[in-house]
Every structure is written in structure tokens, then in C-alpha cells.
Amino acid sequence: MQITKDLVVKIAKLARIRLDDSETEKFTTQLGAIVGFIEKLNSVDTAGVAETNQVNGMENVLREDEIENFPKMNELIACSQHPLENNQIKIKKSI
Amino acid sequence: MSEITSLNLVETRKLLSEKKASAAEVSAAYSQRIAVLDPKIESYLFVAQDQASENLTGSLGGIPIAHKDVFCTSGMPTTAASKILENYVPPFDATAVAKLKQAGSVILGKVNTDEFTMGASTETSAFKKTRNPWDLARVPGGSSGGSAAAVAADLCVFATATDTGGSIRQPSSFCGVTGLKPTYGRISRYGVISMASSLDTIGVITKSVADAAIALEILAGQDSKDATTGSAPVEKYSENLRTDLKGLKIGIPREYFVEGLDAGVEEVIRAAIDQLKKLGAEIVEISLPHTEFAVPTYYVVASSEISANMARFDGIRYGPTIKNEDAANLVEMYFENRTLGFGDEVKRRIMLGTFALSAGYADKFYKKALQVRTLIKKDFDDAFTGVDLIAAPVAPTTAFKLGEKIDDPVQMYLADIFTAPASLAGVPAISVPAGFSADLPVGLQLIAPQFAEAKLLAAAHAFQITTDFHLQKPTI
Prior knowledge:
The complex is a heterodimer of chains A (95) and B (476). Chain A has a domain at 5-43: Histone, subunit A. Helices cover 35% and strands 4% of the residues of chain A. Chain A has helices at residues 5-14, 21-38, 73-77; strands spanning 84-85, 88-89. In chain A, a hairpin with a 2-residue loop joins strand 1 and strand 2. The longest helix of chain A is centred in the N-terminal third of the chain and has 18 residues, at 21-38. The mean pLDDT of chain A is 93. Helices cover 36% and strands 13% of the residues of chain B. Chain B is built from 15 helices and eleven strands. In chain B, helix 5 runs parallel beside helix 6 (169-175), helix 9 crosses helix 11 and helix 9 (294-309) packs across helix 12. Chain B starts with a helix and ends in an 11-residue tail after the last helix. The mean pLDDT of chain B is 96.
């Protein structure tokens, strides 16, 4: 399939990445080549083949639902460069 | 001092236990060598000071090691070689780091990687271009290029690493060192910055197979913090190493000897297979029919998972960020932080994954890739009903030149052609030095069924101790 500039602009917006014109141009060419390459998968007959999400056979690994506090809460939120208030990170209003 | 740093883990442990050198002397020898040689190799992103300990009680007591910079290390920067995590100092250790610390290891520092481990040359690192110790004009491979180059240049005893599509094995092949990618879930991923969660595998790059066996004994096992860690018992890998291959049947997949495999590499691999035969293995040709679809499958699955995993990097909780007052609103702030924080390869993969998961394309690309993954895994399941191990090349070429493939993503992705299949199947594999082509190292890949690391390491050891390729050192 054809990867167009419009599609790249749309994907970049979904991915929260801003592209300038020359980057849009470059990524359109590169993603076009990559998608052309992965379209090779269309030649494989996968009728009735199950999907694999997990390979080592572990499933439904359960544990007791116990609350465990992270011991270094202050150090953890101090990793943020935004102002802190009441043990929380202060950011722009989201709505 | 160079005598100390040329020793492998087994030899360094002996040196320390016989008190021929103190742990402080061993650490100092490495620190000095890093100070002198790393400006040429550029493998370290962060060098720790005064970490030496005289606590020799653990199985790694006093052993200086390096961690790939995606392993969270309490109190030490952990950047994933990305600007978006520049100056991030995690307040906790990854399980792998904690286990190695508990065994007495000394952390020399953090080593370079492709940004968020996305690459096959370590050139996508936002901070440094690591050089191949065998030829400084060439890449060390990637993404664990810092780990492989540091081990090859004797800048640590061994290094941790991660492998998602070949990131331990390919740089190990390029740098002439031993690289073990265990079974998916054999070692906890907790505290290791994720790239593609269904593929990311923790392992080590070492100076010998015996060293890798010791490291795996320490690192392997279930972890309540990583629900994908397997319940298979951890074996005494280092006590079950072999000196011959009698009674073992080793399969050679015909799909790994195709056009694109460099003639010099093929010659080395064919000679290595002869060596396996001399050691008593029965060699049979096998087929892994879906091999050619592994790289496209890998790039759809990995990129899709990447686009989800990278969503957490928004500049709010860690990393450099623009100030609240400089952004019009929260969404603008995300755009700004991610646009400035991520390099081109990360952006490319996030966009590819976003595309593969987007409305209208998810079935055509993502679902299809998950189905082909089933067929690739079945190829291995079928093959292992008839053979104990598989032997193959690690990479189609030796180390390429810096800059050679950086602008051609598809060519760069094809560097994973012989490593991606084992990653998709979750089976363990190892790269062992097998010779040289035009003075550049070539690795032999051995692949085993899931959780059969004991058999894998035993056979790789037999090959290694009857050859001397792993003992050869680059002149830097």
C-alpha cells in the first residue's frame, strides 16, 4: 500500500510527535519502504492459525492482592522536573 | 595491570580467592583501563567512582561489571541512551542488578546502547557512537554494542545486556565475545526499561561460555515483579558444562545459508560446524520454513509494542521537560517533550507501531504478524522434535562501517535476519566466537528449546574450549 504524507501526518499526531516538512518527507519515504517490506507477510497463508502473544507458556499468573508501598516515594517523584505539591507532580490542567 | 583485565570471570574469581590480588586492585585495574582506552571505544555513558568492595563472600565477590544503560541502578543515571531520560537517576535496582549486587559484584558503570535498544549498531544512541574494538571505523553492532565493546576491550569482566531481536547475539558476533540470550522469561525484566514486552529478554555478554553459565545461575528464576518469568527450575549450568558433543544431534537450517550471507562468514560457520562434528555431534540438515518472514513479523510485533511502551515517556515524571508555563496545554506539552526527547529511530518505530495498530490496519498488519509468529514458533517446535540444538550464523555479515546503514532502516533491520526467529519463538540462543573473516570476528549461533539453557551452554562450552577464537584480543 501507498504511504502518503497525509497518513504520516495523521500517525504522528496520534503518536504525539511533531514533524516539520522535511521530516514528514523523510519519514514518508522511509515508512513507505518499511511497510513495503512488511507487506511480504501477505504471502503467508494464515487461515485458521492462532495468534501468539505470549511464548513461554505462562498464563494467568496470580498472587495475593496485597498492597505494597514503594519505599522511596519521595525519591521517585523527585525524578520529575516539574514542581511538586502534596507528594504529587504539578502539571498543566488537562481539561 | 593489563594482565588482570584480560582475565575472564572464572580466572578473576580464582585470582581473588587465592589472594593474588585484592578486589580493590582488580577494580582499580579496570578503572585505569577505562580511563585510558574508553576515550577510543566510547562504550561507557557513566563511570562510577570508588565502587570497590572487599566483600568477597558472594559468588561474584569483588567482580567489576558493567550494566547496559536500560537496567535501573539505584543512585546511578539510567538513560536508555535517550535525551528523554537524560539525568534520570532511579531510586531502585532492576531485579537483575539487585541479584548481581547481592552476589558481590562491583558496578564499574553504565554502557551505551541504541536509544531504548532500538537499533543494530548502537549508532542511534543520543549520546555517543561506540566503536568496534577490532576496527575503530566499524560499529560494535547493537543494540548492546556498549556491553559487547566493553567486554571485548577488557573494560569490564562481563556486562549485562538485553536482546529483543538479536541485540545480545549480533554485537557479540561483531565484537568476538560470548553473548547469551536465554529463554524469554528466564531472567526477570523488572526494572529494565522496556522496548517490546513480549520479546525483551535479559542476558549477559561475557569473555567465555563458562562465565555466562555462572552469571545465568545468579540471574535466572521467577520474580513476583515480572509475571512472565518462567517456573522451570534454575539448573547448575556451570557444573554441567561438557567437553564433547557425543550423542547430540545438531540441526543446520538450510534457510540460514542463503543469498545475502557473506562468503567469508559462511566459510567460518561451515568450519565451525565441522568442529561440532569432530566433537561427536551428529549433524543433520533441517528446515525452518518461515525464516524469511521473521524480520517483517518482528518489526510489526516489536513496533506495535514499542508504540504502547513509549507512551509513558511524556516528560512529566522523568527527564528534561519544558516548563508548565511554556506550554499552551497538557497535550502541547506532550508533543513538545516527545518531539525534543526522542531520536529518529524511536520516532520511526513509534509511528510504524501506531500505524500497525490503527483502525483499518490492525488486522492486516498486527493480527497477521501474530499469526505468522505462531508459524515461526512452530518451525522451532517441529525442528526440536528431531534435533537437540540448532547451529547457524548469527549475522549475515561482519561488523559494518559507522554510518553505512544509518539512513536505510530496511537494511539495518535485515541485520536481525538470523536472530529475530529465535526471539519470536522465545527460545534461548548463544553467540560464541567462531573465527575471523578479513580480520573481523564472526560468531556461531547455537539455539536450544525453551528452558534448555543447560544443554545450550554445555555444547557451546565444548566448542569453545576446543577452539581459541575467544582468547584472541583486539589491538587497541
